[in-house]
Amino acid sequence: MTTIKRAAVAAVAMVAVAAPDGPSATAVPAYKCASSTKDSDDTSHDGPWPDNWKVMVRTCRPGPGHRVRVRYAYAEVLWDGAGYYPVDDPTIFDGAELRVQIKQSREGADPVVAERDFPQREARLEDSTFSGARTGTYRTATISHRAGAAALGDSVLFLDWDGDGRGYQRHHDTAAPTV
Fold first, then answer.
1. Is 149 helix (H, G, I), strand (E, B) or coil?
2. Does pLDDT of 32 surpass 70?
3. Which of 5, 55, 56, 98 could be cross-linked to 37 through a Cys-Cys bond (beta carbons 3.0 to 4.6 Å apart)?
4. pTM for this one?
């Protein structure tokens, strides 16, 4: 190795040792996620064909090593809907909404310090391929808030099945682990 290369390697090593533990502007934090998969029943359908939707909600937040006091969280929904509906049936849901929260973890109930709703997701859920398959994914934007070290991300999926008369019902609760 040439003297210039050795000096460059030594300088990079010294900068790496002297750098603070916090993330740099270009560092991408590792995210810790928690997920919940459930079968959600179309309560307005009582016919002979299967009507359950397999839905997974995953909530993520930065993991260890992300030491700044701004906490981040996002959620992702993956679904596999029943195939008996007509292609691109806009009457499956009256509404679908995903709520992402940042909570301060404490003994007892964890208070919500930030939340954002992502409404009007029903069109994405009702969309299908030309053969009627209803599978898909949706990822929310990332929300952030200044919170203590024991903050956690949480998400809730609300579905309002068309014609069941029950309005929005809570279908999933998924909290990302505290770090």
1. coil
2. yes
3. 56
4. 0.72
Question: What is the distance of C-alpha 59 from the center of its chain?
Answer: 4
Residues in contact with 167: Cβ distance below 8 Å, sequence separation at least 6, in sequence order: 160
For residues 136-155, one letter each, b for 16 or more C-beta atoms within 10 angstroms of the residue's C-beta and e for the rest, the string is beeebebbebebeeebbbbb
Q: What are the φ and ψ backbone dihedral angles of 118, each rounded to 5 degrees? A: -120, 85
Contact 80, 134 (CB under 8 A): yes
Q: Quote the tokens at residue 115.
A: 């939340």
pLDDT digits (tens, 9 = 90+) for 136-158: 899 999 999 988 778 888 899 99
Compute the average pLDDT of residues 163-178.
75
3-state secondary structure of 91: coil
The SS3 assignment for 141 reads coil
49-59 pLDDT per residue, tens: 656 788 889 99
| Number of CB atoms found within 10 A of residue 110's CB | 18
Please, which residues have CB within 8 angstroms of residue 3's CB and are 6 or more apart in sequence? none
Q: What whole-number distance in Å separates Cα of residue 63 and Cα of residue 21?
A: 14
